[in-house]
Amino acid sequence: MVKEVPESENRPDNTAFTQQRLPAWQPILSAGIVIPMFVLIGLAFIGIGVALFVTSRSIQVLEIDYTGVEPESPCFRCSSSDVNNCKCNLAFSIDVLFQGPVFFYYGLKNYFQNYRNYGASKDAKQLSGDVDKFTDPAVECAPYRFDSSGKPIVPCGSIANSLFNDTFKLYQIVNGARKEVPLDGKGIAWWTDYNVKYRNPSITPLRNAFNGTVKPVNWPRPAYELDTTDPANNGFINQDFLVWMRRAALPNFRKLYRRITEGDYSEGLPAGNYTLEISYNYPVLKFDGRKTVVFSNVSWMGGKNEFLGIAYLVIGSLCVVMSIVMLIVYAKFKFPDED
Amino acid sequence: MLRWIRQQLGFDPPHQSETRTVYVANRFPQHGHYIPQRFADNRIISSKYTIWNFVPKNLFEQFRRIANFYFLIIFLVQLMIDTPTSPVTSGLPLFFVITVTAIKQGYEDWLRHKADNEVNGAPVFVVRSGSLVQTRSKNIRVGDIVRVAKDETFPADLVLLSSDRADGTCHITTASLDGETNLKTHYSVAETSVCQSVSQLEALQAVVECQQPEADLYRFVGRVTVTQHGEEIVRPLGPENLLLRGARLKNTKEIFGVAVYTGMESKMALNYKCKSQKRSAVEKSMNTFLLIYLGILLSEAVLSTILKYAWQAEDKWDEPFYNQKTDQERNSSPILKFISDFLAFLVLYNFIIPISLYVTVEMQKFLGSFFIGWDLDLYHEESDQKAQVNTSDLNEELGQVEYVFTDKTGTLTENEMQFRECSISGTKYREVNGKLVPEGMTDDSPDGSTPHLVGEELLFLKAVSLCHTVQISYDQPDCLVGGGDPFSHVNGFSSNHMEYYASSPDEKALVEAAKRIGVAFTGTSGDTMEIKTFGKTEKYKLLHVLEFDADRRRMSVILQTPSGGQVLFTKGAESAILPFTTSGEIEKTRLHVDEFALKGLRTLVVACRHFSPEEYIDVDRRLNAARTALQQREERLQEAFSYIERDLQLLGATGVEDKLQDKVQETIEALRLAGIKVWVLTGDKHETAVSVSLSCGHFHRTMNILELLQQRSDNECAEQLRRLARRIKEDHVIQHGLVVDGASLSLALREHEKLFMEVCKNCSAVLCCRMAPLQKAKVVRLLKTSPEKPITLAIGDGANDVSMIQEAHVGIGIMGKEGRQAVRNSDYAIARFKFLAKLLLVHGHFYYIRIATLVQYFFYKNVCFITPQFLYQFFCLFSQQTLYDSVYLTLYNICFTSLPILVYSLFEQLVHPHVLQSKPGLYRDISKNAMLSFRTFLYWTLLGFCHAFVFFFGSYILMGEDTTLMGNGQMFGNWTFGTLVFTVMVITVTLKLALETHFWTWMNHFVTWGSIAFYFIFSLFYGGIIWPFLHTQDMYFVFVQLLSSGSAWFAIIIIVITCLFPDVVKKVFYRHLHPTSTQKSQSLSAPQAQDLSCLESLCCYQHGQSGCTRLARLLEHMTGQCKASANNCHASSRSNRSWSDTENFYSNDRSILTLSPIEATHC
């Protein structure tokens, strides 16, 4: 029946692995290593911090609130809800040359693009040009899936429906006359968004793809007419639309509106007086929202952000301070020797 | 059918009657009252599952675990209601965990199936319809006559019918059952033993009646009724007639037996032990922590739900124009909404309970336990035995032991008996060169002179060589095959070829000694025992054996002398025999016995009784009646025995030495230094026990030995205890040792537990002698349940230690000579007592540190993981928006952070093993579950929260100023924000473990840096493709965009450093201001590290240097002038060498080689 176990050699292998003798590096976090390490890190961080701080300091930012809450605000008239197609002019002046390229942002405050239902309310397939989804948008789009007559809404969902629709025109006042500053609407969205992720259906002309569908409720024009000046910037790859579709992480956010790179303004905005003509459409007062416009130039590290520089300086100095404290402790209290 | 189901479920006992009736060869009575009985078939099923029930049964088993069940609930909630994360996020990890476990269990079960099939399919020979038929083992039915040939194992429990020997006996070994390798003789009933051929068996009409199956290997009660010539002959059956499944036939050509217990009803199968259900202290704290985390989870979910409704009270937040609700959402009932919101938050935060914790812990324990078996230091060269792990659940408990209860014989001692002295009729003798030399006389008899033994001496030696159960095995046992009578061959061999086998080593030593002196036991044939007295053969007929048992503590044989008289020889413990002696040198012998005991010898007393013919008839009748009784056989036998074993004539006493094992003293000393209290529990006499205790270092000469002995009454005992307590109080400078005997102990335990505990705790060593097996367990339980709930360890080698081994938190078996029962019931088994030191001090220490850090780290990393998610809710109106993408949520615990901690928990060595072993005091550093105390738990949890705050608010401040982070002015979205937090988290959490790691093997490097690299590569890959099957493409290019931002890189670095910075500072300060002894010894092992850097050699400074010089030297080092003076290093290497010289006796020779002092001169 069961075979008798032969008298086998039970001796375990004598290898580094089985005997837990693998060669190993055994660092000890003692003052001896940590102090010089801290000094090095601290000095490096202070250096980086200074560089970051200086870089950040050199960036110019101009932020103007145009919500129109205060009666003296030029947009006060437009902010009441019963006014339609309201325009207001915002005058401001620049003292020194605003180094180009200048980026023109609009900002919203107290606006929760990160609301979960809101974020889910879109149809990724539809936006990637799947025509099947034009007739039957995803359920997540509700209540912006079908309009009251039962026609599918394209693009469906809350995000698309709430597309920011204030428009801006910037004029420089040169000798009392208004000189329009050319605004570049290209390159404001991620390259991958308008080249890969979002696609129009491959039907020409584009409007035929939208037959049998209706535009989002809040939109003045259907998706294929978002940019009347450039036919290629329409439908789901319209860059203003794409910028809006990339939801902001936090309730106060800015989105890139235009770049000022062309003509006389490629070097930046010269000192002088400017007027911003705003067509005021987007209601924010109901939820205590604020609207701003922001002009900013950028460095290699992005926009003005003093946090990084300060953080590096603080941590760097802390490292140095701690290493000095450790040195004192080390000198004063002997490392307890073996006894 | 219903009954069958109930039976299967165990509601109904399957057998109603107390006995079963087996018709040999299934020849049922032709007429009359035959009730067919159902017996189990001979299939052994050790497997748990079949192909069909594997999935449901395994799933059921797994979901009985509370953690798995919890995740199942979460998964179902996700399926049912609209929750922030897709069911995949918790379904996939759950699936992963369940699958891994199922695969492991399935594989183990497959192995069992394979083993079962091999066993069940083995060919066997069965007598059927008049001929020998070969069939498979599983086809054997109860009642079948089975033929077993030499060296085969028995396929079922058989009642021996006949063997090829005329007397119908056979020899077997039960090594695979209880590990006893000695030969045992089993007998058949005379009426059946004549049926040595198939045809004769065919004619046999017999019925076996026996008790229903039970697990006790050594109990069998039955009778066989043989019908011969129309006459029914009834014979008793006992364990000596039963051949157990799994035992092996030896020295016998073939036997026939009838199967009485088959398959799962055989005694072997009934003895299959389920694994011990012991749970370690770590596991208990782990469960407590899980509950705390469940509390955190629930409170976070409740808080979030409440805050959500607080926000939503205002309409402008609840439903702004850009985020209208559907009609369905508006109309659903508020209570339902509230509940579903609560559940959604629960789902959102559920990852705080680490799903992979159990899997990782199990994997760690399973894989980690291999190191014990692999350890060469725990390998015993002589017996070719390595340490054995029976359960890996308790690895870490080895590092927590506070009390060690050890058996003496075979555990502290070799259990290798040497006959030393004896006392015959009041004269003491020593054995010198094979001669008995009376005390006071020198061995001056000229060589070759015939030894002159007087009658008493001769009688004593004859008693010793006849009263035993020793078997003989010959070197060439094949020669025996020919005939049934071994004696015919004995003359042809020199007696050197003869070897004694005995279950008791004492007996073997005595028989061997008698042989050396001149009275040699040469064998048993049938019921005849043969001895050779100085070459002259004498034959004794063996009439009865009164077997040894632990209550009587003696055994006897009744023999017919060659001259025809009947004599009883008995031998046993002195307390079991002296009271029954009536003649002989009782007082002198008692003195001698005490003297032997003082020398540490094991003593036995030998006595005899001559029967008159009338007496013998009475004795014979009583014994036979008791043996054939079906009811209460044991009680009646006891009665008969005590009737017979009285009026004894004292012959003498023997003293047998049991050598101490190697390095017992050092081991006990090491355990004591480690803060472990050692209790020796033994069945020996108190004098023997004390003397062994002294010689093994359990008691010191300087110790004040307190005694609690021979207490007769409660009051007396209490009085003595109080007296002892007072003595301890008065004299607390000196160490105390306590000796208790079994009887006093049971008194003390009955009424004065507290007082007794009080005394015990103040004694540094306790010795309990005269202990019965159950008493040992009781002592362990007493300590275990005392208010401090100390962790106990029991170590022993014999069957009498099993109860204590099972009772203690950790049970350790010694693979000794007393069978394998202790080993089978233990959690760990080692070959020698000295291995205990390494097992506890090194392995226990390592496992504890590993698993404790593993548990703490798991909770920490999940707090880090989920708290940012919680914080994010404050910024998204508690809308349950997830911060991380679903794939990241799913893979965080499975892929990104799982391997480093697993590798850490397998390989970490905080201190070098040699240091741990040579400085047992380090064991105290981890005692009382120190690394899983509430304080450390709080530290890790708070650390997790702090880190989470830093991740989240660091990223928040960076992005919250809502400026662009990219050089092209474009903006990031919410997923980039989440990915930034996640990236920082993965790196920080991995590096935090790197900070904890002290032992960096290439594997640690590989998995630590590999995990971070894998995260980056995976993210690039995941974000680089439009995944056709995914619902949304939210993560497309998010990671690349994040990495293309310089600010993000700087932010990642600063956040990670900020998190780890305080930790490093804390570590350095603790190391220098409050170093634990473990940390102190790390520097000891440091010089051995290969990459000894100059800076690390700072510890080489000599004593007495002032802080200033140290500082100066430090600065010197920092500026790169690495000139640690040769002086200093010499000092260190010298001290190192001396340390290895003096302390290396704990480790064996091989380990010293690895500890070369040269390495210390690196600097």
From TrEMBL, chain A:
GO biological process: phospholipid translocation
Predominant location category: membrane
Family: Belongs to the CDC50/LEM3 family.
Zinc-finger as UniProt keyword: no
Name of the molecule in the record: Cell cycle control protein
Highest taxon, organism lineage: Eukaryota
Transmembrane residue ranges: 28-54, 310-331
Transmembrane keyword on record: yes
InterPro entries the record matches: CDC50/LEM3_fam (IPR005045)
Cellular location(s): Membrane
PANTHER family: CELL CYCLE CONTROL PROTEIN 50, CELL CYCLE CONTROL PROTEIN 50B
Protein source organism: Salarias fasciatus (Jewelled blenny)
Cellular compartments per GO CC: endoplasmic reticulum; Golgi apparatus; plasma membrane
Pfam name, any one: CDC50
UniProt keyword list: Membrane, Transmembrane, Transmembrane helix
Automatic annotation (TrEMBL), chain B:
Record GO terms (molecular function): ATP binding; ATP hydrolysis activity; ATPase-coupled intramembrane lipid transporter activity; magnesium ion binding
Positions annotated to bind Mg(2+): 407, 409, 797, 801
Record domain P-type ATPase A: where: 124-185
InterPro entries cross-referenced by the UniProt entry: ATPase_P-typ_cyto_dom_N, ATPase_P-typ_P_site, ATPase_P-typ_TM_dom_sf, ATPase_P-typ_transduc_dom_A_sf, ATPase_P-type_domA, HAD-like_sf, HAD_sf, P-type_ATPase_IV
GO terms under cellular component: early endosome; endoplasmic reticulum; Golgi apparatus; plasma membrane; recycling endosome membrane
Family membership noted in the UniProt record: Belongs to the cation transport ATPase (P-type) (TC 3.A.3) family. Type IV subfamily.
Designated name of the protein: Phospholipid-transporting ATPase
Organism encoding this protein: Salarias fasciatus (Jewelled blenny)
